[in-house]
Amino acid sequence: MSARHFLSLLDCTPAELSSLIRRGIELKTLRNRGVLFEPLKNRVLGMIFEKASTRTRLSFEAGMIQLGGQAIFLSPRDTQLGRGEPVSDAAIVMSSMLDAVMIRTFAHSTLTEFATHSRVPVINGLSDDLHPCQLLADMQTFFEQRGSIQGKTVAWIGDGNNMCNSYIEAALQFDFQLRIACPEGYEPDPRFLAMAGERVQVLRDPRQAVAGAHLVSTDVWTSMGQEEETAKRLQLFAPYQVTRELLDLAASDVLFMHCLPAHRGEEISLDLLDDPRSVAWDQAENRLHAQKALLELLVEPAYHHA
Ligand code: CP
Ligand code: NVA
Predict the structure, then answer these.
(1) N or C, which terminus of the chain has less Cβ within 10 Å?
(2) Which pLDDT belongs to residue 305?
(3) Which of 50, 55, 134, 141 to mutate to test the pocket of ligand 1 (most atoms within 8 A of CB)?
(4) Is the shortest distance between the CB of 262 and ligand 2 below 6 Å?
């Protein structure tokens, strides 16, 4: 039985992504007005976390409750997955009891394998390759503050990691130019760069990348699973810290985003999240609203009419 999955931004059309963003804003308004909206009553989301999380877990769990359903947190430590049960077997069994499954994992192939055997939608809550749910929140935040991002310039500063790969996919799907500034050897995965063509430029100098940019985004220098490389990365990435002075080179109405958690004094200066150009807190809150729109689309599409 085929289900609709969200493993990457490319699993939706540009029109569907725009509709998701609009719907996220609508659901946010409903919640702010105190209106109860429970299209997912009796629906259950399973959440498999192989890595730590604050925002992803909370936003999916709170989102399901607010939509009238429930979420179950599954740690591999406490399930048979952690003792070697094949992903395909787990997918068959779990998807026979659940209405959707969210997975945060290391290898992206775990997600694709689970999705192949799942009867219900599978959502990527972050893999080593991609973090598409974060991009829904980022794009919603930009849209709320500045309108359409089409034709704008975005600068990604730092590691060519899972977030950076998802920014490349976003550049394609939302039609913006992306400049990536990273140290040599820390470029994003060539598969994503090849797909993006001229829409994405890789540079070494962060000042060149942010010049005139409408959005500047960064992320931790050491992602989950790379802890052993921390000391080397701290040294190599030092010239890539985003500061107020760096943002001064961007467009006068630039927004700064960080998916969080942040390491002040590393990828951002101590004061950057207090700068009026930073929208990191709105961005974090929008995980809730954007993913409620996503859950509605995947689990109960009849309600999704943004
Ligand atoms: N941005 C993000 O995914 O945060 P968590 O790791 O806390 O879920
Ligand atoms: N790149 C980071 C994102 C955390 C939300 C990581 O993978 O750890």
Answers:
(1) N
(2) 59
(3) 55
(4) no
